[in-house]
Design a protein that fits this description.
Number of domains: 4
CATH class of the largest domain: Alpha Beta
CATH superfamily of the largest domain: P-loop containing nucleotide triphosphate hydrolases
Largest sheet: 7 strands, parallel
Structural class: alpha/beta
Strand order of the largest sheet: 5-6-4-7-8-3-9
Radius of gyration: 27 Å
Shape: globular
């Protein structure tokens, strides 16, 4: 397409190949542009993606870069990290195309393209900032001008340099407001960096490219799901709960032909939301030519459970389901699914809401690669009531954008709809939501399997008295809001009582949950469990009696979902709400509990959908500007600047659904201790460390910096590799309770939660 006049400009070099077989720069620019164009077509931006693809590596025509590439001959010489960009290692190449775009097309289109091109290795930058990575600084450096002039003199084809600006009319809907323009820039950035990664990989590591999964038609998956559901229905006993599940499924299927947009699925816990929402998503995708289904879940424990169910259903298509989260067990991953998780190029993605939404506000190429694959998809938000209130405004903005301008259908699936339209500025999202379930309130009444009790009129009760009440039950679950409360109550319980909290590593929790389920399956066994609220959302447990510390109505309803879940009892299960001797943790949990207490007193049916509407309205109204604590769209408005002075990097750093201040500690439980030596060996040779660290995730507990510092000071832990500690003192990890931060003498109050 654009021949290199001297025939000697290369994009990438491999040490195992002679120079005449290296990756020609013209070919790389053409193929990257072609693939980026394809990736951006679903959101009407193909011509824009083609342009950034053609210009992203213009700086490699600089003779200085070509000399450098020949000198290093591989060794990632084609990369431009943040360090390289400022001359410490290798010449800068991304700034040439960015400066050309800025000068050719001016403020507006030129600046938008400059963000994308300049950041395609180191990430979308801030416009201004104290460091040299700020885009304004980079564009104004004399070095940038020198690189561009060298490119022009160094042999870049004239036809390549005089590309026209694509028609602005094609993207008017995407850039009519600053926050929409910032969102569009990130989506276009995703199309470029994924295309660049894939074309580079095809040259540098063709075996890796060959291992990427082949497309599985959604029609085949829909047929497999239909077969599974037919078998499930044929063997299901004709209980009232199963009849209602069948009605929910039928209603979801009936709505599959509805136009794309926002849907709600409001079904009581145990009503079959998971498979019904998947059946809708696959049928809806087929009806409207959508490309994939993304199932986003708040907790990894639910993801593992859901992904296992999906893999069993689609066992004839092992590459169809990609499970993407930090705690994924490596034995569940194939080479193909691991590669597909990089850019979500698979028909069904099961991931965390954290992964989904943090990616939507990320700046790094590795996090953004997947974003273009969200366009024309179905996103199911399971347990949507757990969307983080502190980031609700930008999350709802992102969902609104995806629905309105990127052809996405979103299903908000929960037993307790979070009333997302309850605050000014949010009505646009839910104003036209369509409910998939048949008459949710009537469904709730028919599926009612529990009765709600308030212990002692919600006067405080001691742990001792509560333990006595629990001991009187053969099979009971008690849920509290604090880890120290769970420990205090558990210590008063009889031998054999199970304990669950996030102070246990994921593998430990999974093992305990498996033992709990096994005990529940044996009707002759007594079983008592004390847990934090980690069991509330989506964990399939079924107790005749559940005790729940006072909390928000959504938490009480989720606790009720672990009670008489299958409707097997002759009488309703008992959900007993109590006031523990300790207060809920400060902040959102305390506020939610206060609103919950008020509505328990004022509503005759506090778990009705009307009560939930009141609850979420009050919860959201009381937060005010704290619905966007990162200030992405309010306050500083990092992504809503009228002059395009966006702060992509700062926004990504601030938008953290799980705070960064936690330090991972590898604990000596299960395989945890054995992994220490392997991590040290891999770190010493500098190879294979990533894989073993991923295995270690299942044996890690997060602690706050103050706690980590105390562990290091006392010698109870040591640094294993940067950012990871190992718990040397095995006495601090209890087989029943997990990490005993209470024995350290210094820990953060936040470590008492969950």
């Amino acid at each position: 397409m654009f021949g290199d006049p001297l025939g000697c400009a290369f994009a990438h070099a491999r040490a195992d190949l002679p120079p005449d077989q290296w990756h020609a720069l013209a070919e790389h620019l053409h193929k990257t542009a072609q693939q980026a164009e394809e990736f951006a077509a679903p959101f009407a931006s193909a011509a824009w993606a083609r342009l950034v693809g053609l210009w992203h590596d213009l700086g490699k025509y600089d003779p200085e870069f070509q000399h450098y590439l020949r000198r290093v001959a591989g060794a990632n010489g084609h990369l431009e990290s943040e360090i390289e960009a400022f001359g410490t290692r290798g010449p800068e190449h991304s700034i040439a195309g960015a400066l050309l775009a800025s000068e050719r097309f001016g403020k507006g289109a030129g600046t938008a393209l400059a963000y994308i091109i300049a950041g395609h290795h180191s990430g979308l930058p801030d416009w201004i900032g104290a460091d040299r990575a700020a885009l304004e600084h980079r564009l104004n450096r004399a070095k940038a001008r020198k690189v561009l002039e060298s490119v022009i003199r160094g042999g870049a084809p004239h036809r390549l340099l005089v590309q026209p600006l694509p028609p602005l009319a094609s993207i008017t809907a995407y850039v009519c407001r600053p926050e929409r323009q910032a969102f569009w820039i990130r989506m276009l950035f995703s199309a470029l960096v994924d295309a660049d990664f894939l074309d580079t990989e095809a040259f540098m590591d063709p075996t890796r490219t060959a291992a990427r999964p082949k497309a599985t038609p959604l029609e085949a998956l829909a047929r497999a799901l239909d077969r599974h559901l037919e078998q499930l229905t044929a063997h299901a006993p004709p209980t009232p709960v199963n009849r209602l599940r069948a009605e929910v499924l039928a209603s979801c299927r009936a709505h599959a032909q509805d136009p794309p947009g926002l849907f709600t699925l409001t079904v009581p816990t145990g009503g079959g939301k998971t498979l019904s929402s998947l059946a809708f998503a696959l049928a809806h995708a087929r009806a409207h030519g959508l490309r994939r289904v993304i199932y986003a879940i708040p907790y990894t424990s639910i993801i593992e459970q859901t992904a296992d169910v999906f893999r069993a259903i689609f066992r004839d298509y092992p590459e169809a389901v990609v499970e993407h989260h930090s705690n994924l067990a490596l034995e569940k991953e194939t080479t193909a699914t691991r590669l597909a998780s990089e850019n979500w190029d698979a028909p069904i993605i099961v991931t965390t809401t954290v992964q989904l939404f943090e990616s939507l506000f990320a700046s790094k190429p590795s996090r953004c690669r997947k974003l273009h694959n969200l366009a024309r998809s179905v996103i199911i938000l399971d347990e949507a009531q757990l969307l983080p209130v502190d980031h609700l405004r930008p999350i709802l903005f992102a969902l609104d954008e995806l629905i309105a301008r990127y052809g996405v259908s979103v299903v908000v699936s929960t037993a307790t709809q979070p009333a997302l339209g309850a605050r000014p500025g949010f009505q646009g999202l839910q104003a036209h939501a369509r409910e998939l379930a048949p008459d949710p309130e009537a469904l709730r009444q028919r599926m009612r399997r529990t009765c709600l009790e308030q212990l002692d009129g919600l006067q405080p009760v001691s742990w001792q008295r509560l333990a006595e009440l629990l001991r009187a039950e053969r099979r009971v679950l008690a849920i509290v809001d604090r880890r120290d409360a769970a420990r205090a109550l558990w210590e008063l319980m009889p031998e054999g009582t199970f304990h669950l909290s996030a102070l246990m590593c994921p593998a430990h929790r999974s093992e305990v949950l498996a033992r709990v389920r096994a005990a529940l399956a044996d009707d002759a066994r007594e079983i008592r469990v004390v847990s934090t609220q980690l069991v509330e959302a989506g964990v399939d447990l079924d107790f005749p009696v559940v005790f729940r510390a006072i909390a928000g109505l959504d938490s009480i309803a989720q606790a009720a979902g672990r009670c008489n879940r299958e409707g097997r009892l002759d009488t309703p299960g008992r959900v007993v709400v109590f006031q523990p001797p300790t207060e809920p943790p400060p902040g959102l949990l305390k506020l939610a509990a206060a609103i919950g207490r008020k509505l328990l007193a004022t509503h005759s049916d506090p778990l009705s959908y009307e009560a939930f509407e009141h609850y979420f309205r009050e919860l959201y109204w009381s937060r005010g500007e704290q619905l966007d604590t990162a200030q992405l769209l309010t306050g500083e408005k990092l992504l809503a600047k009228a002059d395009l002075a966006f702060a992509f990097r700062t926004a990504a750093e601030r938008f953290r659904m799980i705070p960064d201040e936690q330090i991972p500690v590898l604990v000596p439980w299960g395989e945890g201790r054995a992994l220490v030596g392997e991590i040290e060996r891999r770190a010493a040779v500098g190879a294979g460390l990533r894989e073993v660290l991923r295995r270690a995730q299942r044996y890690v507990v997060g602690v706050y910096r103050r706690t980590a510092a105390e562990m290091l000071r006392t010698g109870s832990a040591r640094a294993l590799v940067p950012g990871l500690l190992f718990l040397e003192d095995g006495r601090l990890y209890d087989e029943k309770l997990g990490l005993r931060v209470d024995r350290l003498g210094a820990y953060e109050p936040s470590e008492l939660v969950v």
